[in-house]
Fold NADPH-dependent 7-cyano-7-deazaguanine reductase.
Amino acid sequence: MTDTSNLKMLGSQTEQPQNPDEAILETVPYSGTAEAPCVVRFTCPEFTSLCPMTGQPDFAHLVIDYVPGPKLVESKSLKLFLTSFRNHGAFHEDCTRMVGRRIAQATECRWLRIGGYWYPRGGIPIDVFWQTGPMPGDVWIPDQGVPPYRGRG
């Protein structure tokens, strides 16, 4: 059984962090590291942040794939972390990289990649990709499944 005694958010009412710096990514121990590796995928089709120039909302479809190390990210804390960007002004590239780096740091994962598929701003969609290093050869990494822009949805 997994020890969840260190979790403060799971199963309790939790305030929404006002920005990503306030958000805490909680983790749980992962015992499957010694077995055949797996890929964990999180999909956030309604990610929102603010344009740092205009203050207008920007929307993205995020796909996060990671090969766990000693810890898994707890999903409620991940949701709160992702929604904390709603009040955060940053460019698409910075938001996408920040999400990937924070998850990789919190979980000490073997590998992580994030695809940020941003909806058009000024008529141009922006897609941002970041990963921690070379794709591992001992695990199947599926395509992220987001088509090139033709009216995403």
